[in-house]
Sequence to fold (130 residues):
Amino acid sequence: MSLTVSPSLLTQAEQGHVDEADFLACIRESLPYAYDLVARLADELPAAEGDFTDNQIPPVGDAEQGQLLRAMASTAIRAALERHFGVALAFQNCHRLAAFRPQATAGEQYRRFVSPQSQVLNQQPGFVNC
Fold:
């Protein structure tokens, strides 16, 4: 399971509305590695020379890798993180996450990052099972 949902959050969902702050708290508590990585990249973005900052360091273990994969595989989780931190996220391999300035998604750096060429060039034998 990707999120540890509190009874009150479940009640909100059953009643038809989930508070964004409560959902983000659930993400932060359930997927701390992924949440903290996005927070770090968002914090680094204002000082970045280009339109993005990225992480190229693999997670320290399977649990952290799983958290990141679950966060990036969920449209709702990913979108909540993007809204909260004011970034556009792009993901490669099992750990290379980039935070872009939202307006940069129409630019060359973003297009290059999300291109098939970039995906192929960022493959490594150790990523086979990620």
Observations:
- The helical segments are 7-14, 20-30, 32-44, 62-73, 75-85, 108-113, 116-121.
- Residues 7-127 form one domain.
